[in-house]
Amino acid sequence: MAEAEEQPMEKTLSAPAMAEPARPSRLARIRQSDLWYSFRSHRSAVIAAALLALIVVTAFLAPLITPQNPYDLASLELWNAEIPPIWNAEGQWPFILGTDTQGRDILSAILYGSRISLIIGFASVVLALIVGLALGLIAGFFGGWADNVIMRFGDVLLSMPFILIAILISAIATASLPTGLKDILAAPILIVAIAVPSWVQYARTVRASAMVESRKEYVQAARLIRVKAWRIMLHHILPNCMTPIMVAATLNFGLAILSEATLSFLGVGMPPDQPSLGTLIRIGNQYLFSGLWWIVVFPSIQLCLIVLSVNMIGDWLRDALNPKLR
Questions:
Q1: Given this model, what pLDDT does residue 27 score?
Q2: Alpha-carbon gap, residue 231 to 289, rounded angstroms
C-alpha cells in the first residue's frame, strides 16, 4: 500500500519539473526590451512618433478622407477658386484650409502631396542604404584597390554640394527622356537623384565597422573553415554595423524629404499635375504677396512637421543606442 501511494506522488512532483517554461512572444520581448523602455520614457520621442504616425495614416488614407482628388481635373471647379480657410468670414465647407487659384482643396492637396513626399523620401533612403551597405562592406572587407576605388569616388561626391548633384542628375535625366515619359518617371528620377549623393555616408560608416570586425577572431575562424565571403559579410559583419546605420538612416529620411521639396521648389522635381509638398510650396509662393497666403503657409507647416518629427525620433534613437549614455 505504501508503494502504491508513493507512485502517484512521484508523478505529480516530476510533472512540473519536466515542463518547459513558455517562450515569450516577440511582442512581449519588445515590450520588455531596454529600447522600448527608453522610448516610453522619452516624452518628445513619443509625441514625435504619434505625430508622424498621424501624418502617414492620413496621407495614405487621403482618398477616403479628402473632399476631392486634386489630381482629377474634372473634379475641380473654378468658381470655388481662392476660397480662404473655413474660419474666415468668406470660408466655405468642406474646404477647411481654403482652395487655390484652380479650385483645388488645399487640405486634399497637402495629404496627397505628403504621400508623394514620404514615398520618395523613404525610397531614396532605402536605395542609398542598399548601395552604401554593399559598397561599404566590399571596401572594408576586401580592402586594396576595391577600397581605394570606392572611397575615392565617394570623396569626389562629397566634394560637391549635395543639392547640385541632385539637380544635375534630375536635369540630365529629364532632358534625355521623351516628353511623354517625363511626368511618368518624375518620381523615380527624384529617388535616384537624392540617393546618388547619399550612399557615401552609409558606405563610410559600414567600411569603418567592417575593417574592425574583419580582424576579429570569429571572422578569421570563418575564413579558416572556408566560409564564403558574402556569407561572412552578411551574417557576421553586417549585424554588428547596424546600430549607427539605423540612426543615420532615420536622420537622412527627414533630409531626403527636405531635398525632394527643395528640388520640386526649384522646378526640377514633381510636375504640377502630381504635386508634392515642394511643388505646392512653389506654386503658392507665386501668390504669397497677392493675399492668398494659405496656399503656401499650410504646405510649409506640413513639411516642417514631418521633418521635425523625423529628426526628433532620430535624436532619441541616437541617444538610446549610444552605449556611453547608458
A1: 61
A2: 60
Which residues are registered as beta bridge partners of 105? Answer: 99
CATH classification (class only), 58-69+94-325: mainly alpha
- DSSP letters along 180-227, please? HHHTTTHHHHHHHHHHTTTHHHHHHHHHHHHHHHTTSHHHHHHHHTT-
Residue stretches of the chain with pLDDT short of 70: 1-34, 322-326
DSSP 8-class letter at 237: I
pTM of the model: 0.82
Confidence at residue 131, expressed as pLDDT on a 0 to 100 scale: 92
Residue found by looking up cell 523615380 in the block: 188
Rounded CA-CA distance 65/246 in Å is 33
Report the 3 state secondary structure along 97-151.
Answer: CCECCCCCEHHHHHHHHHHHHHHHHHHHHHHHHHHHHHHHHHHHHHCHHHHHHHH
Q: Which residue carries 489630381 as its cell?
A: 71
Which is nearest to 141 in space by CA: 235, 48, 264, 229?
229
CB 296 within 8 A of CB 284: yes
Q: Give the residue from 86, 42, 111 showing the smallest Cα distance to 325.
A: 42
Distances (CA, A) of 272 to 186, 191, 210, 243: 11, 18, 44, 39
Residue type, 8: P
